[in-house]
Amino acid sequence: MNKNILITIKKELRSIIRDKKTIFRMLLFPLIIPAMIMLYGTMYDSLEESSENTYKIGIDYQVSKEEIEILKNFHLEYKECDSKECLEEAYKEKEIEAYISYNKEINTYEIYSDSSSTSGMVISSVIEEYLNSYSTLLTNTYLINEKIDLDKAYNHFNIAYEDLGSSNYMLSVLLSVSFTYIIMAICMSTSSMATGVTATERENGTLETILTFPIKKTELLTGKYLSSVILGFVSSLIGLILTIISLNIGKNFYTMFEGFELILSFKTIIASILIIICASFFIAGVALALTSFSKTYKEAQSSTTMLQMLCIVPMFVSLIEMDVTNIYYIIPICNFEQILMDLFTNTYSLVSILLTLASTFIYITIVLIYIIKSYNSEKILFAK
After folding, report:
1. Which of 24, 172, 198, 212 counts the most CB atoms within 10 A of its CB?
2. pLDDT above 80 for 295
3. Higher-confidence position of 178 and 211
4. DSSP 8-state code for residue 57
5. What crossing angle do the helices spanning 266-291 and 334-344 adopt, rounded to 10°?
6. According to the model, what pLDDT value does residue 218 have?
7. Dihedral sign from CA coordinates of 281, 175, 250, 166
8. Shortest CA distance to 343 belongs to which of 272, 276, 274, 273?
């Protein structure tokens, strides 16, 4: 490689290593990944455990022996009151979490709970299940007294279920978030580097001095571009490693990952590294192009905000469970995140990989041609 290009790469990387703020931003998103995986796993397990919690409710009617058993099965502890006013007072004093009032006139059980809170919604659902079970018990008792065969009364036909889904919704969202942060790490690090290519040096008045040295514009630009690519690749590679480690740890500690198989083969790892390299080359080029007209550091930062926002799009695609077609794999940034998720869940196809690589090569070529033309302009290099 050209000596001047190597010197420029070393200079830029050295300046980044010395800048603690940039290093922090570069590592921020990779470090968020394991934190998110552990948080999602803990939240999911908490929701699973909440279904076995014991809830305290109030009632203003006398329960039968059968009802007592049903209440126990649904983990409901009850407090008997002689009036609705008594129930309201017990709720205000926080002796109970919800209550049921029986209206004899219209033969209706009225459920009172705080629907604005998660716990209130859960309790209301549990109470409704309890009452439905009691209703079924009364129906069965009536049918038996009428000497009607329960099997004939209920089982008119059989129902069989077959799950067509490959994974649970929450796990799919978590994977999407994880791979979003991997690509986001490239955007954050390359954007930081891009602001220093011309914006910071132009603002500090050092760019003109550098160009008086025996170095060509193309060599200077290539060195800065490659240093940005290296920084983006290292940042995302750290994120990928942390994601793989965190998902493997999650499988052993959280029920959310039950049945989840993370595909870790030589082909998968090589393909994912290749995708990250392509993403680094493309995003670094776009970041340079976006900051080319910036005169100050703040202006350069603002111009790269759009690039970082694009990384969030695939995450929303997963949230709404939108079907992904082959066209999606030619959309830059979105395709990088999707193909990484496909690779590690073994849902990829050769067509999707080829579409991603081919389209990325075209985009990189277009971006580089634009950058070369832009930085050959005196207006770009010496704009004030």
Report:
1. 198
2. no
3. 178
4. E
5. 170
6. 74
7. negative
8. 272
